[in-house]
Amino acid sequence: MVASRLKKICLGTCLAALLLSGCDPQRIAELEEGVATEADVRAKFGEPEKIWDAPGGGRTLEYNRQPAGTQNYMITIGPDGKMSALRQVLTPENFAKVQPGMMMEDVRKMLGKPMKITPFALKKEVDYDWRYRRDQQQLIFTVTFDNDYRVLRTGSVPDPQTDGGTNR
Questions:
Q1: What residues are paired with 127 via a beta bridge?
Q2: Cα separation of 114 and 154, whole Å?
Q3: Which residue has the higher pLDDT, 27 or 135?
Q4: What is the number of domains present in the chain?
Q5: For residues 131 and 18, what is the distance between their CA atoms, to the nearest angstrom?
Q6: Is the CB of residue 167 less than 8 Å from the CB of residue 138?
Q7: The domain that contains 81 carries what CATH number?
Q8: The Outer membrane protein assembly factor BamE domain covers which part of the protein (predicted)?
Q9: Between 20 and 30 A from 112 (CA), which of 10, 48, 103, 140?
């Protein structure tokens, strides 16, 4: 009975995440760089997961689609209050920028909130995982941090919730 209830909760959460991320392309199309304001962004995307300071006095609003989704969005609002950039950040190009020695906060600012954080106390390491898509494959990108939250290594594997990385 408990397993059945957990399964229903999980399915409901996954469905909500899919519906939310399914609306993203429409929301993005309705926002124009240099024209849309922070109020316009918030009207389309809601409250951000986190707000980061951006270079030059702007702010970056983080919109997370983890754990069930495969995107994270960073939307930069310039000092003039207008949207200056909207990026889906879970990409192989961004993953390649994650280098050994980087601090966890810098990785977090680059990729957004991970879908899962797994501590390994005996190894004195912590894994941060992000779900993403490349071509038709669903993958997990992992960053392993040491005790000081500096990057040790990175890697990608097929998402175990899919059949070899493709949707079931």
A1: 118, 144
A2: 14
A3: 135
A4: 2
A5: 13
A6: yes
A7: 3.30.1450.10
A8: 89-152
A9: 10
Q: Is the pLDDT at 53 greater than 50, yes or no?
A: yes
* pTM for this model (two decimals): 0.81
Let me know if residue 120 belongs to a domain.
Answer: yes
CA distances, 142 to each of 96, 123, 124, 131 (Å): 12, 16, 16, 9
Token pair 């229903």: residue: 8
Last residue of a domain, one of 45, 72, 88: 88
Two tokens at 10? 């999980």
